[in-house]
């Protein structure tokens, strides 16, 4: 994070304090100071600002002999934000309060992928969740979409501030704040869906890169001159481990509805069907090889399997891929890494974008 002036540092501290409460545990000012490496005086100032703004509340902690220490927790309700996941076949909008409790959800099908049409789908979904909850006005909207051209279109049509970010960053943030990557510093989050990507936490920080495109692991080359990829190249990781590749391995007819086909395969895997297990094993080979390369380069302590393909296949996917990573990764790097299924698999893009919208426009 590049901090340009004292205002940036102050905002960064406010973000760090708020994020420390997303796990739900109450904390004292001293605990916050020790956790974040800040002085008690600095924490006192930040907590005072956040309490005055209505984001935190004080409660009496357990009595341990003397006066009970005052504890702090998130205050629910209050300011509302919307997180939006723009996928290829649908748009999902979710409404959250300032403690990131989900209050409403709406999913609408994507009938056309032109930018203007996508904006209409987003507005329809946002309007639908707005109608479900009237407790407080919406203060900001976060949209997970890698298409920067949509920003101006959305800002012209929305009556509140809009934040756009890459869905992969939102998924990684959701796992860091609420899921398997909480309290972990060096993590790779594997997002497996129609497309694939790799979210990276390095020393607790989200790796963005110079143009916010860090994590395009799906378009690194696995086989020179190999299978064609949607990006126009050949041999990309996505061509071998995206949902379309999995369906082709299964030999389950034309791609059609990828999610339904993968769900059928996952059901067969859980039943112990030999053909389905063989398909999973064949899918695990290129996936494990590609992840071994990432392990050697990034040296993570945790590998989190996310995305809707991971959600469908579940633990059998992790069990199938882990030995392949071990086969190809350097021993020291592999031994440092734990492989787990993501805990926040129910639309992490919306949650991550809601957090980003809240932090960008309500913690200034």
Characterization of the model:
Belongs to the ROK (NagC/XylR) family. It comes from Lentzea roselyniae. This is ROK family transcriptional regulator. This protein is an alpha/beta fold. Helices cover 45% and strands 18% of the residues. It contains 14 helices and 12 strands. It has helices at residues 6-19, 29-36, 40-52, 115-132, 150-157, 167-178, 237-241, 243-250, 258-270, 274-298, 308-313, 315-328, 331-336, 348-362; strands at 56-60, 70-74, 80-86, 90-96, 102-109, 138-144, 162-165, 187-192, 196-202, 205-206, 302-306, 338-341. The strands form 3 sheets. Strands 5-4-3-6-7 form a 5-stranded mixed β-sheet, with helices on both faces. It has a 5-stranded mixed β-sheet with strand order 10-9-8-11-12, sandwiched between helices. Helix 5 (150-157) links the parallel strand 6 (138-144) and strand 7 (162-165). The protein is globular and about 65 Å long. The protein starts with 5 loop residues before the first helix and ends with a helix.
């Amino acid at each position: 994070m590049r901090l340009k002036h004292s205002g940036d540092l102050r905002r960064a501290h406010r973000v760090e304090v708020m994020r420390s409460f997303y796990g739900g545990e109450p904390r004292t000012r001293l605990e916050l100071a020790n956790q974040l490496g800040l002085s008690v005086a600095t924490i006192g100032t930040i907590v005072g600002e956040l309490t005055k703004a209505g984001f935190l509340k004080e409660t009496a902690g357990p009595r341990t002999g003397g006066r009970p220490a005052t504890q702090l927790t998130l205050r629910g309700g209050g300011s509302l934000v919307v997180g939006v996941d723009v996928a290829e076949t649908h748009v999902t909008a979710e409404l959250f309060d300032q403690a990131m409790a989900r209050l409403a959800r709406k999913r609408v099908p994507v009938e056309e992928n032109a930018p203007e049409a996508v904006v209409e789908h987003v507005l329809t979904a946002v309007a639908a969740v707005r109608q479900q909850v009237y407790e407080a006005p919406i203060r900001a909207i976060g949209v997970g979409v890698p298409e920067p051209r949509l920003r101006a279109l959305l800002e012209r049509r929305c009556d509140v501030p809009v934040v756009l970010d890459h869905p992969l960053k939102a998924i990684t943030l959701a796992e860091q704040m609420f899921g398997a990557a909480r309290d972990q510093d060096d993590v790779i989050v594997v997002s497996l869906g129609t497309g694939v990507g790799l979210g990276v936490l390095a020393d607790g920080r989200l790796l963005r890169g110079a143009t916010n495109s860090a994590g395009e692991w799906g378009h690194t080359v696995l086989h020179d001159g190999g299978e064609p990829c949607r990006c126009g190249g050949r041999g990309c990781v996505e061509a071998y481990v995206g949902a379309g590749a999995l369906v082709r391995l299964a030999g389950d007819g034309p791609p059609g509805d990828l999610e339904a086909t993968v769900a059928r395969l996952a059901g067969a895997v859980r039943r112990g069907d030999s053909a389905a297990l063989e398909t999973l094993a064949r899918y695990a080979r290129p996936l494990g090889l590609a992840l071994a390369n990432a392990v050697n380069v990034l040296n993570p302590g945790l590998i989190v399997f996310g995305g809707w393909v991971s959600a469908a296949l579940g633990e059998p996917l992790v069990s199938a891929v882990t030995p392949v990573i071990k086969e190809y990764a350097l021993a020291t790097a592999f031994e440092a890494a734990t492989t787990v299924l993501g805990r926040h698999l129910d639309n992490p893009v919306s949650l991550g974008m809601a957090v980003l919208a809240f932090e960008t426009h309500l913690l200034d």
